[in-house]
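$ run holo --ligand "heme C" --emit tokens
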Amino acid sequence: MHCGRMRSIFLAGVGLCALAGLVAADEDAVATGDRLAALLRASRSVVSSHQDLINDQSKGNKDLSGERVVAEAITIFAGQKGTSIPSDSSSGLDKLLFDAQMAAIREVVDDHQELINTKGVGFKGFIPSTFARLVNERFEEKVGDKARMKVTAPEGQIRNRKARADDWERHVIDDRFLSPDWPKGKSFFEEVEMDGRPSFRMLIPEYYSASCLTCHGQPKGEVDITGYPKEGKAEGDLAGAISITLFK
Ligand code: HEC
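-- output --
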């Protein structure tokens, strides 16, 4: 069980935090955050699974529409344990955020049709990491007053400046996720202020798998296919974190 800092301060005196577990509001927020992270990951793996198609220079029309990517992402999402698509009985916010995320995925893919369908160009740079950043930016344009999402990383591993961690994210990454005794995959959440507003923030760690290392692995400093120097990382190292903010 996890106790957010603010709640610990409020309840520490009576020891309720340790006893009561998560309050219902937190449980809902965690479920919302987990769902948003799961759909982002599912859509990223769809884009990953189609890299050969996207980068096929012999082919013009790839038939990879936003609609198709959303449909394939939903199939992956729905097949995962513990995930559920918000139904009409879900809270209005849940459904609104999920719909906004689906729309963001669809729009980002549709906006890149010309690039994706270009014949004669191999590697196009429409990779999962970039795609995810664009989806998160589009999501913020739609619902930024209610929620935000981003993928951030430890200080030395930032490629795109937009991915830089803010103070809260940096502390969680440095003090918790990078600490040797932090359980692998365990997320962290806390009620804190963001932009002067009370909010629920959640950070979900991500680790490199073998497939990431062509770009993020050895030899450190060698320029990868995307033009960035490789980070020299190994399989299982902390790659970054999905950061989700739900404003109250
Ligand atoms: C084809 C090369 C390539 C592969 C493979 C790749 N990445 Fe990346 N990664 C990038 C690029 C380029 C960016 C910057 C994306 C952007 O913001 O446009 C990035 C950004 C990131 C970021 C955000 C940090 C930042 O500075 O932007 C994380 C976290 C990340 N990658 C993790 C992974 C993980 C985990 C995998 C494997 C599942 C992976 N990457 C596979 C090229 C790659």
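-- notes --
Confidence is low (pLDDT under 50) at residues 1-20.
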